[in-house]
């Protein structure tokens, strides 16, 4: 009976690990082609799952187009944190309906699924850049990631007997290196002139 207990534990961990997978709307089998490779043509009609950071959002009368700096996707199909577009390139994904550019703003992470339909040329500086165009079936806006900042000890913590690091010694206390969540707020409006 003691043999089955570790096996049951391993099975439970595997099931729980399976819960942290790709969100339901983004699941499926897609062709492993990068947006940079799709720029060369010949990929029309290919089903893809791409993601990255929004460069700009352009609502039109029938659909909204998202210009995206492509990034590799992690195991949850979310754009990888801290990875630049590099050789991934850029792409444009269009979906029917209105999407608010204030919500789908520059720098937000987006993953889309859909079909490649040619390219759209837009200016990037003085360069005519051919964006592979995706007719999106799913547009998935990821929640903003929290910002963590290291702190040596909790704010206001001081004990005259033990010092700021407590009885645990330098760097071994339960609060040492505990992350703090910092909320970034927009700057206040400029003062009105008289």
Can you give a write-up of this model?
- Residues 1-22 form the signal peptide.
- Keywords: Lipoprotein, Signal.
- InterPro entries: OMP_Slp.
- The protein is 10% helix and 34% strand.
- The chain contains two helices and seven strands.
- It has helices spanning 4-19, 35-38, and strands at 47-59, 63-70, 90-96, 109-124, 127-141, 147-149, 180-182.
- The strands form two sheets. The protein has a five-stranded mixed beta barrel.
- A hairpin with a 3-residue loop joins strand 1 (47-59) and strand 2 (63-70).
- The model has no long low-confidence stretch (mean pLDDT 79).
Question: Concise description?
Answer:
By secondary structure, this protein is mostly beta strands.
Helix-strand layout with pairing:
Layout: H1 4-19, H2 35-38, E1 47-59, E2 63-70, E3 90-96, E4 109-124, E5 127-141, E6 147-149, E7 180-182
Parallel strand pairs: 3-5
Antiparallel strand pairs: 1-2, 1-4, 2-3, 4-5, 6-7
Major beta-sheet overview: 5 strands, mixed, barrel
Beta strand count: 7
**DSSP helix count?**
2
Q: Give, in order, the helices and strands.
A: HHEEEEEEE
Which class of secondary structure composition applies to the elements?
Answer: mainly beta
The N- to C-terminal Cα distance equals 83 Å
Beta strand %: 25-35%
Q: What is the helical fraction, as a range of percent?
A: 10-25%
Flag low-confidence runs: none
* C-alpha Rg (nearest Å): 23 Å
Q: Provide the spatial order of strands within the biggest beta sheet.
A: 1-2-3-5-4
Report the mean per-residue pLDDT as an integer.
79
InterPro entries: OMP_Slp
Signal peptide: 1-22
Protein name: Slp family lipoprotein
Keywords: Lipoprotein, Signal
């Amino acid at each position: 009976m003691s043999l089955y207990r570790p096996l049951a534990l391993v099975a439970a961990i595997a099931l729980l690990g399976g819960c942290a997978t790709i969100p339901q709307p983004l699941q499926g089998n897609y062709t492993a082609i990068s947006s940079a490779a799709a720029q060369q043509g010949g990929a029309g009609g290919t089903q893809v799952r791409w993601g990255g950071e929004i460069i700009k959002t352009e609502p039109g009368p029938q659909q909204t187009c998202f210009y995206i700096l492509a990034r590799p996707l992690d195991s949850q199909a979310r754009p990888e944190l801290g990875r630049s577009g590099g050789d991934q390139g850029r792409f444009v994904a269009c979906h029917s309906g209105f999407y608010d550019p204030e919500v789908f703003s520059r720098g937000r992470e987006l993953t889309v699924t859909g079909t490649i339909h040619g390219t759209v040329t837009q200016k990037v500086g003085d360069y005519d850049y051919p964006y592979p165009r995706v007719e999106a079936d799913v547009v998935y806006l990821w929640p903003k990631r929290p910002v963590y900042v290291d702190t040596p000890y909790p704010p206001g913590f001081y004990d005259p007997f033990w010092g700021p690091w407590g009885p645990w010694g330098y760097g071994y206390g339960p609060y040492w290196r505990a992350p703090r969540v910092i909320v970034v707020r927009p700057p206040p409006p400029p003062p009105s002139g008289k």
